[in-house]
């Protein structure tokens, strides 16, 4: 099974390539040598990942062709809006109507939606978000893999289970060779086209080690690599980009400076934001977001978080519930209600309707069993599967009882594909290239 549909190169203009997928055209940036019009390729996150032989592409496409259109039909049916639902509070309906006609809600309007306490009305919000997702992004759903390479961390984030002060967990650090092998397995055997490498802020790897790791993976396997090693410094970001990393997953956690400083002793929100901005300038795809349900966090704060994500030009919105970890300073807090999370996802879609990938986080899936299906029906269009070797997975205990901490990769893939199929979604990331990105990209 693959996580991208092969496309046919229609036109090449400098680094920009027009790719045809069953008559639908998308753009991608080319980073491979000798590409020509007529070649078949896989693209991911707006990048051409690799060329594949025409025969192989034709075979895959012939299997896909029928399913591709069938899935789109199912998705279209499921995302139709039931117009009768408009009997709700008039301001609520008006904001949604305008969103569906192309005017995204302002911050105060988004807050108004957030504050609705009518469950039936909230269903309409979810449906509107799903309608917009379908309208602009069709049925593609990103399926990335995440490989957690080390749970060592030199920071002391007060909510986090792998904070250096948590003495209740065993620590591991994968060797570079182990990481390369695990990445290779995910890419070659399981077909992932995009992989996130994640760790705590682990001084056990130097920047040169991480660069070597990425370069080796990129030399051996075709994939888009995202890094998530915390604050590596602006120079570190540059080096890692040169080594081949093309995405940065780094949450700002909360846009409320006071809360940020309380929860992250010795760290500054401004430093984190500087990393995210610099990364965007360097050409990284930005995956960011925050925690929902932090002590002291208000609904205004959460709306600010969503707008900040948009301002940071995020390719992917990554928002998850804060889950209390026994034995840590916030261990006795209560987690949020799952409906609040669904509201966050759907409002994110309304605010950034046309391009955003909105992720169902593992934390949300840990909070609620049906999170993935419900989230995908409320504006989300992205999932991440855990490809960390099972012998380490349980130890990456940022919070307890993580969803998928014991599932084989193959099982996660099968479950995901069957869910996506039932919702009419295709496990593809056809990607879009933002003009700004093309220009800001280093040559
Ligand atoms: N609950 C939910 N998410 C958490 N993270 C860390 N600790 C927790 C927790 N207790 C998230 C942070 C970090 C990501 C890797 O894990 O938001 O960015």
Tell me what you see in this structure.
The chain is α/β, with parallel strands linked by helices and 443 residues long. It has two domains: 7-77, SH3 type barrels (Roll), CATH 2.30.30; 137-428, Aldolase class I (TIM Barrel), CATH 3.20.20. The chain is built from 16 helices and 15 strands. The strands form three sheets. The protein has an eight-stranded parallel β-barrel with strand order 6-7-8-9-10-12-14-15, surrounded by six helices. It has a five-stranded antiparallel β-sheet with strand order 3-2-1-4-5. A two-stranded parallel sheet has the order 11-13. The model is unreliable at 434-443 (pLDDT under 50).
Q: What is the top-level CATH class of the largest domain?
A: Alpha Beta
What's the shape?
globular
Q: What does the main sheet amount to?
A: 8 strands, parallel, barrel
Helix content class: 40-55%
Reported by name, the CATH topology of the largest domain is TIM Barrel
Radius of gyration: 21 Å
Strand runs, count: 15
Mean pLDDT across all residues, rounded? 92
**CATH architecture grouping of the largest domain:** Alpha-Beta Barrel
Placed side by side, the strands forming the largest sheet appear as 6-7-8-9-10-12-14-15
Number of domains: 2
Strand residue content: 15-25%
CATH homologous superfamily caption of the largest domain: Aldolase class I
